[in-house]
Structures are given as structure tokens and as C-alpha cells.
Amino acid sequence: MIKESVKKFGLFNTAEGYSYLALLFVAMPLKYFLGMDITVKIVGMIHGILFIIFCVLLVIAWQKAKWSVKESIVFFIASLIPFGTFFTKNKIKSYE
Questions:
Q1: Angle at 17 between CA 82 and CA 78, to 5 degrees
Q2: Number of domain units in the chain
């Protein structure tokens, strides 16, 4: 059960990271340089949903894998930084 929750968290960690990069480097330039406002609305909504799922799965994985509070905070902060979720990918694999 611990492996399953950590694996699911790792999957959404990666998906959320890619959606963040798509929002920053695809949707926002399309909005500001080409006036395509809809791209930010669509990609932003997808990213928002993935981020909420990420946060819920972080709490579940934290409780089941008995991570320290410090480590969980590092995972959360890394999700706010572009390419940060890829930093945590190796750390998550050590728990699987």
C-alpha cells in the first residue's frame, strides 16, 4: 500500500511538472505574443486540477510512507519551481 501511494504521487508529480512547463513555456507565450488567451485558460485549468491532485497525493504519501515534515515541504516547494518536480523524481524512486 505504501509503494502504491508513493508511486501514484510520483506519477502526478511528473504530470504536474510537465503541465507547469507547458503553462509557462507554451501557453503564456502564445497568450502574450500571439493573443491566444484561450491557451492559458485550458492549460491553466489542467495544471490547476493536477496541482490539487498532487497536493492531496502528497499528504497521503507523506502519511503512509512516514516522510518527515521537512521532506514533504521540500517536495511541495519543488513543485512551485520550474523543473523542481524533476529534482524530486529520484528521491521519490528511493521510496518505491
A1: 55
A2: 1
**Vertex 90, ends 87 and 93: CA angle to 5°?**
140
| Full-model pTM | 0.87
Grid coordinates representing 1 are: 500500500
In this prediction, residue 96 carries a pLDDT of: 62
Domain span including residue 6 = 2-93
Q: Compute the mean pLDDT over every residue in the chain, rounded to the nearest whole number.
A: 89
How is residue 26 annotated by DSSP? I
Residue listed under C-alpha cell 486540477: 49
Q: Is the pLDDT of residue 23 over 70?
A: yes
What is the rounded CA–CA span in Å between residue 8 and residue 16?
12
